Amino acid sequence: MIRVLAFIRRLPGVSRDAFRSHYEEIHVPIALPFLAGTAGYLRHHVREEILGTPGFDCMTRFDYPDAASVRAVFERTEGPQADAIRRDERTFMDKPAIVFFPVEEVPGWGQPGADAERLLVCARRPRTEQAAGFRARLWDRELPALRAAAGPRWCRAWSPPATPERGFDAVLEIAAVGSGEIRRWAQALEAEGASLIAVRVSVHETRMPG
User: How many beta carbons lie within 10 A of that of residue 118, not counting itself?
Assistant: First the structure.
């Protein structure tokens, strides 16, 4: 499975609520015919900042079964037949600000649970630390510490093969009851020089045919 994360920002003058409504009610139906072969299509809309100021209003996750499917979808969405998608994007998305990159899954734990808050935590390493070392520390020490302190019911972690210029070293999807301990955990990492963003999100999933 190939997974790609896209961090999307709304246009100035478009409220977060209007951005979310347009994305879900107008943009998704326009885009769906061009996404044949996509195995998963999820949007994580920012509802509240918990730590830091995100440079995005939605994280969209695309899952593809293989590289051929990725190429086929990109050819369709970038071709002249997809002009309707691009016209619509320009009405509510800040296109130059979009950041996207492939990720690999890191073992997590648990199940989300219907009553849990859904959170995103995005981390960049300290300037003086190598990406591999930071990720190893995050997975081997910091994530177990988070689980022990905050007790998130569910955690899924993502890491890009190489850190994109405008991307993150790690992205965590978390389901928890309350965000206080998660904020304190993130602030402790920031005290060590890392840069973190934590936001509460609502997750919108489109079931893909096949």
Answer: 18
